[in-house]
């Protein structure tokens, strides 16, 4: 039997995996039970999954994951109360069914804003009241910082932003605190948190919100990273910045792509991926987990964005960017048949 990752890191942090409901049984379910002590829904708890139409809730997939976590005494991260993707359109339609963003009349814009923030509050209230006893950490907002051509504050100019300014972020955290209670752990989650100027924009926003009394307990670092990017130093600095504010850091969506950006998708199957690349990946995992164990960085959780290489969103990205629409990535420590890779041994600290 292969030694359990979760047990190995018992004294440091829980080890989680993102899952679809169909993965909490059968072979992936068994791997989860053995190697992980935390789960998060890859898609099943996003707004479009839970409330596809206003007031029409679909709990089935989410409930399956919650029940699995309960039955196996695992932690549960909630992802995500708010995002600009995978949010149903009805959120942003006014009372007449027109897009709120198109409204030019000032008074109506104000009314729309109120309506949108009310819908957000209702969504959060309903979800939080259902799951609050099961959830250990909440991604309250996801990806609110822009890294394309950011405005001065670096705030993403999503529909949320266009209609409410930064108020949607404040409303989301206050609502989460109100309904989940004082003990709930509330996170602001984002990718490329290591990279300037995004990192500083995130930092400045968090400082501003905290000064204004907005309840934030920690920063979720998605950590969709590559073999040589970002540098370990950049990662360390980012964790340090937030730890120095007294916040928790959680690694929320870890995967280490074998490609650069954009992904070439040059390898079409697992068999085509050269062994040397998997060795480089192992070294990368080793340095990362060494960093994560540095107590001064206050890293309280590490979740992979999947279990084995047979199911990863990075395949979609490789296929999207490759010349022929095909391509295979291999970001995890377990291969497509859940066998250990060099990265597993690296993470476990022996080679
Ligand atoms: C991804 C899922 O993995 C895909 O299955 C889905 O099609 C799109 O979303 N950042 C996030 C996650 O916060 O929610 C995303 O998950 C990956 C990037």
UniProtKB/TrEMBL annotation:
<keyword id="KW-0732">Signal</keyword>
<keyword id="KW-0119">Carbohydrate metabolism</keyword>
<feature type="domain" description="GH10">
    <location>
        <begin position="1"/>
        <end position="350"/>
    </location>
</feature>
<keyword id="KW-0624">Polysaccharide degradation</keyword>
<protein>
    <recommendedName>
        <fullName>Beta-xylanase</fullName>
        <ecNumber>3.2.1.8</ecNumber>
    </recommendedName>
</protein>
<keyword id="KW-0858">Xylan degradation</keyword>
<keyword id="KW-0326">Glycosidase</keyword>
<keyword id="KW-0378">Hydrolase</keyword>
<dbReference type="GO" id="GO:0045493">
    <property type="term" value="P:xylan catabolic process"/>
</dbReference>
<comment type="similarity">
    <text>Belongs to the glycosyl hydrolase 10 (cellulase F) family.</text>
</comment>
<dbReference type="GO" id="GO:0031176">
    <property type="term" value="F:endo-1,4-beta-xylanase activity"/>
</dbReference>
<feature type="active site" description="Nucleophile">
    <location>
        <position position="253"/>
    </location>
</feature>
<comment type="pathway">
    <text>Glycan degradation; xylan degradation.</text>
</comment>
């Amino acid at each position: 039997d292969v030694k359990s990752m979760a047990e190995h890191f018992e004294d440091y942090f829980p080890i989680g995996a993102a899952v679809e409901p169909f993965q909490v049984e059968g072979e992936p379910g068994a791997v989860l039970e053995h190697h992980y002590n935390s789960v998060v829904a890859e898609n099943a708890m996003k707004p479009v999954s839970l409330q596809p139409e206003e007031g029409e809730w679909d709990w089935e997939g989410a409930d399956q994951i919650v029940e699995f976590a309960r039955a196996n005494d695992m932690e549960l991260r909630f992802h995500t109360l708010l995002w600009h993707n995978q949010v149903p359109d009805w959120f942003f339609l006014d009372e007449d069914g027109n897009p709120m963003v198109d409204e030019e009349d000032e008074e109506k814009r104000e009314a729309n804003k109120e309506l949108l923030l009310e819908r957000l509050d209702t969504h959060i209230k309903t979800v939080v009241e259902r799951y609050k006893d099961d959830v250990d950490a909440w991604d309250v907002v996801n990806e609110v910082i822009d890294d394309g051509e950011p405005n001065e504050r670096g705030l993403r100019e999503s529909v949320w932003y266009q209609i409410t300014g930064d108020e949607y972020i404040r409303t989301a955290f206050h609502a989460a605190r109100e309904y989940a209670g004082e003990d709930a752990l509330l996170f602001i989650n984002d990718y490329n948190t290591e990279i300037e100027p995004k990192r500083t924009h995130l930092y400045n926003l968090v400082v501003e919100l905290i000064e204004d009394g907005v309840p934030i307990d920690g920063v979720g670092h998605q950590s969709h990273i590559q073999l040589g990017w970002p540098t370990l130093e950049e990662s360390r600095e980012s964790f340090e910045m937030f730890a120095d504010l007294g916040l928790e850091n959680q690694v929320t969506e870890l995967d280490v792509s074998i490609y650069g950006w954009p992904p070439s998708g040059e390898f079409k199957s697992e068999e085509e991926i050269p062994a040397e690349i998997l060795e480089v990946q192992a070294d990368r995992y080793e340095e990362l987990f060494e960093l994560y164990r540095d107590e001064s960085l206050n890293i309280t959780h590490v979740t992979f964005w999947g279990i084995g290489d047979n199911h990863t969103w990075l395949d979609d990205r490789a296929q999207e960017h490759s010349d022929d629409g095909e391509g295979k990535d291999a970001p995890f420590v377990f291969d497509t048949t859940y066998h250990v890779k060099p990265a597993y041994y690296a993470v476990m600290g022996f080679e």
